[in-house]
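User: My instructor asked us to take a sequence, write out its structure as tokens, and then describe one feature of it. I'm not sure where to start. Here is the sequence I was given:
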Amino acid sequence: MPPRRGPDTRPPAGPSTRINDAIRVESVRLIDASGENVGVVPIARAQDIAARANLDLVEVAPDARPPVVRIMDYGKWRYEQEQKAKQARKHQNLIVIKEIKFRPKIDPHDYATKKGHVVRFLKHKDKVKVTIMFRGRELLHPERGEAILLRLADELKDIAVIESRPNLDGRNMIMMLAPAKETGESD
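Assistant: Let's start with the prediction itself. The structure tokens for your sequence are:
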């Protein structure tokens, strides 16, 4: 049979928490289901106590001497850990920066269209990098580009705040807009 080609579709190996018979040491420090420290006991006795309680023996500190094990429902504990990780990911704020490019001699209709895109990005809580691109002799009049950027910021003052004022960077003038904080919003 030839070797398999393509991406490895197997799920990644899970955390290597040893439970029940996978714990292979002579003695362990046992913590019972209520959280009480029972003390150092032989592994066979710890497994027997866990089996009588219909719970699992889970190694919580494998590097300790002797290793620390706890009597608990492993499936329930793993589920709770997954839920905590899921909640942590859910509350992470991912900052996305969108960019819109203008020209100093932009037509009014083109300006309105691009302004609509900026509004859409801001309503999705994304930051917007607004760039004015200068070509040739247009660089002699950077105030025209700055006027466009300040006009845009003024028209969007209800939904956006200027994070960085218009700044000339080579042949481009850049301004950053961030969504305005809503006063009635609670997180």
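For the description part of your assignment, you could build on this observation: The chain is about 30% helix and 30% strand. Try explaining in your own words what that tells you about the chain.
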